[in-house]
């Protein structure tokens, strides 16, 4: 009999048919009798003192049920601790305010809340609130914000958020031995998550005075933060996650939850709050802009021997997840290469720009653009093939990162993914138009899956067998559309021999599902997948033990497939699965199991110097592209796009291919069109009319090359693919532009204007 039944097959996701039919109930589709509508008053200034707030006229408006300011919030100043108390503890703490108090730090910062009978009344009430501001100078450039005497964004005189460094060997010695040295400064912009579904939720009080919040979120564990804001026990807050219309990290932080809870408690009525598109772009976090200075040295044979990198990250107005993002950047700064001499300094600072936090790629994507551009320039300086220089230097099994993380016993598939991506481009395209030049680019990358190893990460999952042979899964995993829920169904189907049609999964409810942690950091397959596998295998063990007694066959000779338990040595000898379940139940044996999976743990770093194993494992991949560059207009057309990754083991092939295709498309915009333009703290691209996303006509077919090394730490040796899938596409495109027309674009996106200017035609 085959080793697997459903692993690696292409099966529809658990929510596929409902989405296709339009029957999914998203957060904004939900309503309740007697529901009020919430609205948020936001600061028009990037930096200002709040002298006074007058809400009297708004409160008098007929239909207004509540107007709240900072004085009405039980705990307005929330300190989020992102780690244990250590010598670098201050680097992992972020203060944020539910509503602005004393001064505002960015345009769009929440100042007051309103709940009214209709949206129109709530909007009118916002207009009646009078806020007297005293504008302040602010600071908007991260380099300037680092200088002594710079305007203090927060309460401290220093704008420093965090600083990390990586050291390996002696870079001065390394550069002294280099035959070729390449130096460049790279810049990447603010980027919006651009999910189709804006932030939305509904809250209500139930008969036990529990605050229920039905919300579009990546983190149902925010019930704890909401309880802190309200000053009530955590068991008095319930968060029910919805199916999401996109997240990409933008719904990892608290969005509307605290606002909804405050208004609901105040009015004791259900309250709904949904952001407009413009409000969403204004109010939620962005991907961090970086300024990255790189110096890379190599021998004439093409061996990279030294890298020095200085990274400066713009945290915006509040800390949020910036320390984590910066740490990822520091670890990834030298790339997936085994380099003897490395020096990395990474710094994040506050500015009065929009605040920045998690975005798909989480700190790995910014340096990926820089180091892969550097490697490409080295190849050109040495007259080497772009594939050959990467083969010569990339990590292999037994190699180590600059932090000292060694890949002993771990298969590193970097040479293979790069070779297969480059090969899959096939013959070069031709164009009859003389003003269009064809070019090709390659880039490799790595990204961790799972959270940092010093976070004691855990996930729990519950599996129950019914008497008719069907199964129920309960797991607190939010599903962002990446198939997180479907993967768990595949695991249970594989282990217990049950068809997917007979498996029902309940997800994302703090009251009814075991907590599984955040759907972030590409961690859910690794964490909740292993927890679900553990629960399913415990149930299978009980079933096989009972079947062994019934069939008089040794347990090790039994296999579960197709709703039967077979004698693997004589497949005609079997017993129906539901019969074994019935016998177990009659004997009083539990046909359910809740299991917990704990990620590998290492000690918390004791200083800003990052050493050792900071992540459990990495996913390695490559992108290869072919572009046509119009030398008259500067327009870049992507003709071919190949995504090649080692995913360890395919659980659901549709999920894997979908994430690889989606990741490539998601950051095609990062390379060519997407930039949240911010001038002196003011967003100049406030809607999708100005913030340019790639459309269907901009995207070629994405060819996916899937490798299965079986070397991952997830179930069956799987690796995470969600975030790694997007990291190296931007440098691949920029390298292809360089190949086509001989210019190096060092700041993203590579707009037609930038290309034409670089060509000297403007």
Per CATH, the class of the largest domain reads Alpha Beta
Strand arrangement across the biggest beta sheet: 3-7-1-14-11-12-13
Apparent shape? globular
Query: Might you state the CATH topology name of the largest domain?
Result: Aldehyde Oxidoreductase, domain 4
- CATH-level-2 architecture of the largest domain: 2-Layer Sandwich
* Main β sheet profile: 7 strands, mixed
Classified in CATH, the superfamily of the largest domain is: Aldehyde oxidase/xanthine dehydrogenase, molybdopterin binding domain
Poorly predicted regions are 81-92
What proportion strand?
A: 25-35%
Mean pLDDT: 95
Question: What's the total number of strands?
Answer: 30
Classify the secondary structure makeup into a structural class.
Answer: alpha+beta
Oligomer: single chain
The whole-angstrom Rg is 27 Å
Q: Count of DSSP helices?
A: 18
Q: How much helical structure, as a percent, in the residues?
A: 25-40%
Distance between termini? Answer: 67 Å
The domain count comes to: 3
List the defining traits of the structure above:
alpha+beta, Aldehyde Oxidoreductase, domain 4, 3 domains, 7-stranded mixed sheet, 5-stranded mixed sheet, 18 helices, 30 strands, 26% strand
